[in-house]
């Protein structure tokens, strides 16, 4: 018997196979709060009972055009971590520990093994951040996506005590900004990076050096495991996830309008790939600053008396971190609320 839906381009059987292949990885992320398994219409999750004034923090995001490089490299093993990191790092910036995540995969054609690999990466990252992967959706849309193409999106909910919420109100003049190293470009700026490194240079993925490939495909770092213990100890006054818009646009989101940040560009080495892109693409430093993370993936704002303790604890968890700036009184002449001193240094 022929399957009319399959002939139209949607293979339900392949979708069912993909679900079966991913089931073990998904179930490994579950805890006692997860009340439903795969297959239910809605996913049920019971809230922890040890919170006095719980605030739920929700976030959603995708991976963006970095997916095109994963597709070109035929490597889908770590793109799932990019998805999880982009979502849970955002809610971490508000002080929240993630509770659960749901994913969405839209694809030209369901390849069960490929889908299982992608979800396996999502599940592994969820385990590392103690996030339950409680549901999701896989949609086969041959009329929407090009051959071999797919898209990813994620939605997560976290929780934080009201008194521990990082909303910018605790940050004051004299506080110190600590920058946590990025693991690569993370998941932002890839439209520009691809244009400079591939299309303008008329290169294919295989033409790039292994070092450049690694810098581009390294998954977005998961900061929760090292940052949440610091938040629990009330050592953090503000935080920022450095994503689209770079340090220029993301760091000021971590504090109120009465203060601004002064960054010391000499305090860390900017990875060489950014200098390469600046030269090839004739980019200004301002272009780099508002497009890429420049080697700093997450920022913490702490009181001066806690800097040493925070740096020591980060070092104990092998987290590379630098004091990169200070909080100053806001100036009407600085609309971006970010100023810079020193000259940027490049080096790996």
Based on helices, strands and strand pairing, what is the structural class? alpha/beta
CA-based shape: globular
> Strand order within the widest sheet?
6-9-5-10-7-11
Q: Stretches where pLDDT falls below 50 for ≥5 residues?
A: none
Query: Number of folding domains?
Result: 2
What is the alpha-carbon Rg in Å?
A: 21 Å
Describe the largest sheet. 6 strands, mixed
**What CATH first level of the largest domain would be assigned?**
Alpha Beta
Q: Please report the total strand number as a whole number.
A: 12
Write the SSE topology.
Layout: H1 4-8, H2 12-27, E1 54-62, H3 66-73, H4 79-92, E2 97-107, H5 112-128, E3 132-140, E4 150-161, E5 176-181, H6 190-199, H7 210-217, H8 224-232, E6 238-241, H9 246-250, E7 259-264, E8 269-270, H10 272-281, H11 285-289, E9 296-302, H12 307-316, E10 321-329, E11 338-341, E12 345-346
Parallel strand pairs: 2-3, 7-11, 8-12
Antiparallel strand pairs: 1-4, 2-4, 5-9, 5-10, 6-9, 7-10
Helix pairs in contact: 2-5, 4-5
């Amino acid at each position: 018997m022929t399957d009319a839906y399959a002939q139209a381009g949607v293979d339900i059987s392949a979708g069912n196979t993909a679900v079966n292949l991913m089931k073990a990885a998904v179930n490994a992320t579950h805890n006692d709060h997860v009340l439903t398994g795969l297959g239910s219409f809605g996913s049920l999750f019971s809230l922890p009972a040890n919170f006095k004034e719980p605030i739920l923090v929700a976030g959603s995001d995708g991976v963006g055009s970095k997916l095109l490089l994963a597709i070109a490299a035929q490597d889908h093993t770590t793109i799932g971590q990019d998805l999880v990191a982009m979502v849970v790092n955002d809610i971490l910036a508000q002080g929240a520990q993630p509770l659960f995540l749901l994913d969405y995969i839209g694809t030209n054609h369901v390849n069960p093994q490929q889908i299982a690999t992608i979800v396996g990466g999502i599940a592994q990252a969820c385990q590392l951040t103690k996030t339950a992967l409680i549901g999701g959706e896989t949609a086969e849309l041959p009329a929407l996506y090009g051959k071999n193409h797919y898209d990813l999106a994620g939605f997560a909910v976290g929780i934080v005590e009201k008194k521990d919420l990082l909303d910018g109100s605790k940050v004051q003049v004299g506080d110190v900004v600590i920058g946590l190293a990025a693991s690569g470009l993370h998941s932002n700026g890839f439209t520009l990076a691809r244009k400079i490194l591939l299309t303008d240079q008329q290169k294919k993925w295989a033409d790039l050096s292994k070092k450049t490939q690694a810098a581009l495909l390294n998954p977005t770092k998961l900061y929760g495991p090292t940052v949440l213990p610091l938040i629990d100890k009330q050592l953090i006054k503000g935080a920022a996830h450095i994503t689209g818009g770079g340090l220029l646009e993301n760091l000021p989101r971590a504090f109120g309008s009465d203060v601004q940040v002064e960054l010391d560009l000499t305090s860390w080495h900017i990875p060489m790939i950014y200098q390469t892109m600046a030269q090839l693409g004739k980019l200004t430093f301002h272009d780099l600053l508002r497009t890429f993370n420049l080697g700093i993936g997450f920022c913490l704002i702490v009181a001066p008396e806690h800097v040493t303790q925070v740096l020591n604890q980060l070092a104990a968890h092998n987290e590379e971190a630098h004091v990169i700036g200070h909080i100053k009184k806001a100036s009407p002449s600085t609309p971006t609320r970010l100023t810079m001193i020193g000259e940027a240094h490049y080096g790996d």
